[in-house]
Amino acid sequence: MGGKFKMKKFFSKLIKSKILTASVLSLGVLAFTSTMAFAATGPQLFSSDGCIACHTINGKGGSVGPNLSHVGSQRSLSWIKTQIVTPGAHFASGSTVTINGKSFMAIMPNHKSMPKSQVNTLAAYLESLK
Ligand code: HEC
Fold it and tell me: C-alpha angle with apex 77: 69 to 44, nearest 5 degrees?
């Protein structure tokens, strides 16, 4: 009788610990996949935030604004961050500006409500384009 009881206890402990392990594991998987889902990459943000409608990178995108394929060789990281959040700090809104020998109407929208992490990811990506 005593032996049976011990076995039961042993198995219930084993099952409990397995359940615990399984739930810890699945929590980990959940955390991992949600991080993956929310941490969009620079190129993804460039599309999803609409930059691509006005800017071309490597042959893809619009031409309302300057081509950004090599923007990192001309602009610093902090300059690019400022440009994304408040373009008016660099170019008077509505004026005609010349960038890389081409004329543009300065109409880039500001992105004051863009989460800082997105601004940082986008700026780091653009700065890497040499
Ligand atoms: C409606 C069109 C439009 C959209 C959308 C737009 N831009 Fe612009 N962008 C421009 C124009 C026009 C300029 C020229 C200067 C200005 O308007 O401030 C510019 C300038 C820039 C520059 C400076 C380039 C250089 O060589 O000096 C960067 C960097 C830039 N944009 C990044 C972005 C990013 C990143 C996004 C998306 C979050 C974005 N732009 C969205 C039109 C746009």
Answer: 55
Among 129, 112, 127, 124, CA closest to 41: 124
Residue 83 C-alpha to ligand 1 middle, in angstroms?
7
Q: What pLDDT does 84 receive?
A: 98
Mean pLDDT over 41-48 rounds to 98
Average pLDDT over residues 30-55: 83
| 1 vs 27: which has the higher pLDDT | 27
CB-based contact 82:73 (threshold 8 Å): no
DSSP letter at 109 equals P
Chain centre distance of CA 24: 28
Domain boundaries defined on the chain: 1-39, 40-130
For the 40-130 domain, the top CATH level (class) is: mainly alpha
For a ligand 1 pocket test, name from 55, 104, 129 the mutation site with the most ligand atoms within 8 angstroms of its C-beta.
55
